[in-house]
Amino acid sequence: MSPFFDALLLNAGYNAALVAVGAGLLGFAAGSSGTFLFLRKRALLSDATAHATLPGVGIAFIIMVSLGYDGRSLIGLLIGSAVTAWIGLLMIEWIARRTRLAEDAAIGAVLGSFFGLGIVLLTIIQTMSAGRQAGLEGFLLGSAAGMLYQDAVVIAIGGSLAVFATWLLRRPMTLVAFDAEFAAAMGYNVRRIDLLMMGLVVAVTVIGLKLVGLILIVAMLIIPPVTARFWTDRSDRIIWIAGVFGGLSGYVGAAFSASAPAMPTGPLIVLTAAAIFLVSLVFAPARGVAAVVVRHHRFQRRVHRRQGLLSLSRAEPIREKFTLRLLLRNGLIRPDGVPTDTGRAQAAKVARDERRWDIAREVHQDAGLTGRYDGLTPIEEVFTPDEIRDFDRRLGPPVAVRGFA
Amino acid sequence: MGADFVQFSLTPILIGTFAAIACALPGNFLILRRQALIGDAISHVVLPGIVAAFLITGTLAAIPMLLGAAGAAVVAVILIEAVKRLGGIEPGAAMGVVFTTLFAGGVLLLEQSDASSVHLDVEHALMGNLESLIWFKATGWESLLDPVALATLPHELPRMAVVCVLVIILMLVFWRWLKISTFDEGFAQALGIPVAALGIGLVITAAIAAVAAFDAVGSIIVIAMFICPPAAARLMTNQLEVQVWWSVFFAVLSAVMGYVFAGYGPLWFGSQNAVSAAGMIATVSGIVLGLACLYGPHRSRVGVGREDKAT
């Protein structure tokens, strides 16, 4: 474990530290800008974007070599990949808008055919200049091991710009993500904002190509926002929570891969993000599975308790096992089913509140107040003490109820 | 069109064609059901399935590979459904979470095991290797009748042919059910058609086609085959039967033209080396779809008027 902590504390050597910091920055940028894609329910656009970068890499390489430059110049390759990714996105947009095909079909079609074209170009390059081809396949799955200082600088600058643009555009993009028609009515140009959002995604994809590769960058754009969604219902927070989760998975994943030989960086980053996702899915306080189960059980207990008390107040026999167990555990009945004093008192209160609700629904015909009657909301939460006293006056003096005489 | 053609080109063309048809047929329904990207998810999770099968059995035999990949596809579909239900997440994002994670797991397993030193490597899995499936013993067209030569056919060819026939049979048997449940799920339920089981069956059929095609044409190209020919066919007609025929036609066209361009295209430009046939097939299918988007007789949505078209 100690090499892992060394890497986590940036003590595992210059290159490992570079990769870890770069991956952290990239993760933050990808998580925060991917949030809008997720909120707009277009998460898989990133998949098409990522695959559509491949022909750009090939074309840029061929152009640079034929002009006599070194084909491996990262900036040149990234510009090429951004261009084809952008063309791919525009094609998806065009197909979905102008033909009867749905967006998912357009995404799949562009993804498959652009990737096919990219592979054709890669095979051309392989035969073109066998010696200098050197590692274009690295763009498929990433090659963090060979990361240079200037690559890290590219990631740092590009990532910061992407985060800054996300911050600048957060309001219009949130508006469009939640209610595009309202945004249009407010005077925003929805199409332009969508294009800006896609532009951000292209930027992050291109920046991440070298480090995690075009297939796994998709995960960095999708998983952190989905994870963050479990932790908050507020759109202004989800962006930064997603950023933090993305950054964390990038940093920790890179540290893992630095701590052991033959551990590829990209997959480890994705698996770290997936682990955070899984933990959130189960344990997140608001929307996690555990919280939902707990809430369901609490609700179930309330329903059974109320029904049991109502039966007690009417002196009806209770046969339902769970209700019996619950009332017994709460000391409301004795093991032979006879109510205790507390049980009688509580049952009387439930019965009285039920009568109060009857009166309340006669007095207030509007659904706003009495619509909250679901048998579980205490009447004190809906009406003021004055109003309840008024209901009690209308109820009249207490009368002996059968079974309680 | 002599002996060389039979030896080098006949089997790849046939395998590519069978693969294209086997993927395009279920693709028709996936597109109409707005599940096109299930094909995307399946083709990504084929890799971890194959790696897991290799690690468990230690061989690269066909049957364990197919079982592993089909198993991974089913696991992926279940996981996607679980994430969707448990987390309340929209389908696209749930798919993205599941298939990228499984893919990352597959790559990690591959790098950690000895599998990368054997025949199995990531690039092969992504790109396929259609060109290498040549028929060594063939000496000409007459070899088609020669049992000795036939025995040396690449084993991918009979496998792909069997899967293609299986998919066709399944489509024919379940045709009415598929058609009704695709267009009107409520009506299908009222008729007593097991709609949910049918949906899962369709996905599994797609997975089988993807897995069989995967070996020959690579996992990413499979996506193009699932989506491009049926999508192009969708723009040609308003009738399901006609659409399926068009999709088969486009699939065969893409496979044959793609292979010919890849194998002979570079020669026309004076280059000696062929390019990736699988990549070219996907490219051609994309071009076919592009042409259909521009000129297909039924390309626009019903109800889109002339004003809309003008903008």
Secondary structure layout:
The complex is a heterodimer of chains A (405) and B (311).
Chain A: H1 2-8, H2 14-39, H3 45-66, H4 74-98, H5 103-128, H6 138-141, H7 149-168, H8 170-178, H9 180-185, H10 190-229, H11 235-259, H12 265-283, H13 289-313, H14 321-329, H15 341-363, H16 367-370, H17 379-382, H18 385-395
Chain B: H1 3-32, H2 36-57, H3 62-87, H4 91-112, H5 122-127, H6 147-150, H7 156-173, H8 175-183, H9 185-190, H10 195-217, H11 219-234, H12 240-268, H13 277-295, H14 306-310
Tell me about this structure:
The complex is a heterodimer of chains A (405) and B (311). Chain A folds into 2 domains: 2-287, ABC transporter involved in vitamin B12 uptake, BtuC (Orthogonal Bundle), CATH 1.10.3470.10; 291-395, no CATH class. Chain A has 18 helices and no strands. Chain A is an all-alpha fold and 405 residues long. With 311 residues, chain B is mainly α. Chain B has a domain at 3-218: Orthogonal Bundle (ABC transporter involved in vitamin B12 uptake, BtuC), CATH 1.10.3470.10. The interface between A and B is large, with 63 and 72 residues.
The secondary-structure class of chain B comes to mainly alpha
What is the chain-wise order of helices and strands of chain A? HHHHHHHHHHHHHHHHHH
Which spans of chain A have pLDDT < 50 for at least 5 consecutive residues?
Answer: none
Strand portion of chain B: under 5%
Shape of chain B: globular
Quickly count the domains of chain A.
Answer: 2
User: If you compute it from the alpha carbons, what radius of gyration of chain A comes out, rounded to the nearest whole angstrom?
Assistant: 31 Å
SS elements, strand count of chain A: 0
Q: What is the distance, rounded to the nearest whole angstrom, between the alpha carbons of the first and last residues of chain A? A: 72 Å
Rounded to the nearest angstrom, the radius of gyration of chain B is 20 Å
Largest sheet geometry of chain A: none
**Strand residues, percent of chain A:** under 5%
CATH superfamily descriptor of the domain at 3-218 in chain B: ABC transporter involved in vitamin B12 uptake, BtuC
What would the CATH topology of the domain at 3-218 in chain B be? Answer: ABC transporter involved in vitamin B12 uptake, BtuC
- Looking at CATH, the homologous superfamily of the largest domain in chain A is ABC transporter involved in vitamin B12 uptake, BtuC
Number of helices of chain A: 18
From the coordinates shown, what is the CATH architecture of the largest domain in chain A?
Answer: Orthogonal Bundle
Count the E strands of chain B: 0
Q: Which CATH class of the largest domain in chain A is shown?
A: Mainly Alpha
The number of distinct helices of chain B, counting runs of at least 4 residues, comes to 14
The SSE order of chain B reads HHHHHHHHHHHHHH
